[in-house]
Amino acid sequence: MPAHAEHGARSPRASGFSLIEMLVALAVFALAVLGLLNLAGESTRTAVAIEERVLAAVVADNVAVEAATIDARLLGDDAHGTETAGGRDWRWTRTVAPTADASLLRIDVTVMAPGEARVAAELALFRGVPE
Questions:
Q1: I need a surface site. Which of 7, 46, 57, 110 has the fewest CB within 10 A?
Q2: pLDDT for residue 12
Q3: Are the C-beta atoms of residues 66 and 101 closer than 8 Å to each other?
Q4: Nearest to 59 by CA among 86, 20, 23, 24
């Protein structure tokens, strides 16, 4: 009987993890952490994009409500301007066009993100023609 077995000691092979086992466990842990970091980054990017779309929609709604409530004779043809929402200045354009029904006007509202040329929100509404 070996000496280490006589005193109740475990063999050196059974006393812990080998270096290879530790490296494999560390690699699996690192892959899991990288996946979680990637998920957190994607969540942040998605939250920023949603915030931009919501703020642009609020600006478009504000411009549309103004166009729907002011005297229709004051609408003119086209208008543009800026509105502050969420601490940023959003550029908007309002286009008024006739429709096939002579008693209606089509009003298109487009909102652009600050410092960008791309459209962040669009809205169309119809309004009666002033008599």
A1: 7
A2: 57
A3: no
A4: 86
Q: How far apart are CA 62 and CA 31, in angstroms?
A: 47
pLDDT per position as a tens digit, 42-92: 998 899 889 999 999 999 999 999 999 988 778 777 899 999 998 999 999
**Cα three-residue angle 50-109-122, rounded to 5 degrees:** 35
Q: What's the CA gap between 125 and 105, in Å, rounded? A: 8
How many C-beta neighbours within 10 Å does residue 60 have? Answer: 25
Q: Is the pTM of this model over 0.90?
A: no
DSSP symbols for 67-88? HHHS-GGG--SEEEEEEEETTE
Could you give all domains of the chain from N- to C-terminal order, each with its CATH number? 17-128 (3.30.1300.30)
